[in-house]
Structure formats: structure tokens, C-alpha cells
Amino acid sequence: MSTAVVRTAAPRPAAGAHRGLLPVVLTATFMTSLDVFVVNVALPSLQSGLGAGRAAVQWTVAGFALALAAGLVAAGRLGDRYGRRRVFALGLALFTAASAGCGLAPGVGVLVAARVLQGGAAALMGPQVLVILRTAYEGPAQARAFARYGLTMGVGAVLGQLIGGPASWSTSRSAWRCWPWSAGASRSRGRPGGPAPTRPGSRRPRPR
Question: Of 69, 180, 181, 182, which cross-links 102 as Cys (Cβ 3.0–4.6 Å)?
Fold first, then answer.
């Protein structure tokens, strides 16, 4: 009596997943985490460079965090309705533009407005990244993708403080302007030009 051996294929990325997909979405995650922390250490240089009061400068931190937290739920719904790739790309473009606005801000009011826009743009990308990882990978590949997602958030938080440190130690009043440009440059290099982070079912059908 012969015994049939059934072999199960190892889980692979779902159809439509691209090899460059993970670096793109993790770059967005890294910069979002970095931007939460990078300003904290650079606040003294920023305050002296703009001649702003303590409360006004604190809004550069709070504005980003509030816009990010307030926009997450709405951004997730926009991704369901209009497609996650589109919403992710929109958030990426807005974040890059807001980073340029931070670097060129002539006063604290413009800087705070640009930081709020940055937070809103980060909110647009955040939910899309999680769902993209959930739908584009399966099995062990999905577990590895989420492990790298968590690691990326931690590394971004640490490096944010390390990058902001030289700006706070520098005697130049314009030293703080370096971090928005570094953030925008990293974002533009990670733009989702080729990979399409979608698969059947990644966009919910509209209710009839």
C-alpha cells in the first residue's frame, strides 16, 4: 500500500506585490516616526532662529502630533473609498511639500502650519501602510513584513533624536532648517512610482 506525500508550497507574497513595495512603505513609516521626535531636540535652535516664544515653538511639536492623531480614522476611510495607492501617494506628495515649507518658513506661524500639514500627510499614509502590508503578504512573509515595520518605527524614533541633536548644539540660528530638508529628500526617494501596493480585495467595493 503506497502512501501519497502531499507537499504544501511555502507562502509567498500575494499577487500584485512588488519586490520594491516593502522599502517604499517602510520609508514612509520611518520618516513619520522620525518627524515626531526630530523637532523635540532641535527646539532651542529653532526658538533662537525664529525669535519665537516657548508656547509658539511647542506648537511645532503639538501641531504635527494632533494632526496625525486626528486624521488617522478619516485617512483609513479615504483609502477604502478611493484606493490605498492613491491616498498613499497623495500623502507622500503633501509630506514632501510640507517639508519644503518647514525648511523655508520665515516665521513660526508658517512653520506651525507646515508642521500641521506634515501631520495630516503622515495620517494619510499611516493606515494605508498597515493595510498594504496585510494584503500584499501572506504567511511568514507577512510576519516578517510587520516585524520590519515595528523595527522601522523604533529606529526612526531613535534617529530622530540623533539628527535633531546637532541642530540644538550648533551655534548657527538656521541649523534647525536641516531636518525638514532631510525628511523631504528621504520621502521623495521613496515615492511609489512603480510598485502597486494592491491586490484583489484591497479596495472595498462601494455599497450599493
Answer: 180
